[in-house]
Specification:
single chain, mainly alpha, 7 helices
């Protein structure tokens, strides 16, 4: 998705991604993990929606609530330093997409997502269905 968006994007695509990242930045500065979780989900959804892959965009819409819940819970377990690190990663992704550096954008996003997955506490099940 990151590579596709780097290869073919509009000014509107970049604006939407920048706004979502700015939202995450503000939340991380405030230490607001709830708002950060919502913003992180919006970043991922923006990538899905704007990448040009209609099938992925449809799947993203179908999984919207689960994605929001995941990032909300994930952010609530993070500290401000991790939130700031995520924002730096999001900004780097945006710069790579703006530069149309498809391979670098894809590589960076894979690394970002691997970090997210690898740093989840696997000793606890990820329960997205109970409050």
């Amino acid at each position: 998705m990151a590579a596709w968006l780097a290869l073919k994007h509009t000014d509107e695509d970049l604006r939407a991604l920048r706004e979502a990242i700015d939202e995450a930045d503000k939340a991380s500065e405030a230490g607001d993990t709830v708002a950060f979780g919502w913003a992180a989900a919006r970043i991922h959804e923006t990538l899905m929606e704007r990448s040009g892959n209609r099938a992925l965009a449809i799947m993203s819409r179908l999984l919207h609530e689960l994605v929001q819940e995941y990032y909300g819970r994930s952010a609530s377990l993070s500290d401000v330093a991790k939130l700031r690190r995520a924002v730096r990663s999001y900004r780097k992704l945006l710069r790579l997409i703006e530069a149309e550096a498809a391979d670098s954008a894809e590589s960076h996003w894979r690394t970002h997502m691997s970090y997210t997955i690898d740093n989840q506490d696997r000793s606890q099940p990820l329960d997205l269905f109970s409050k």
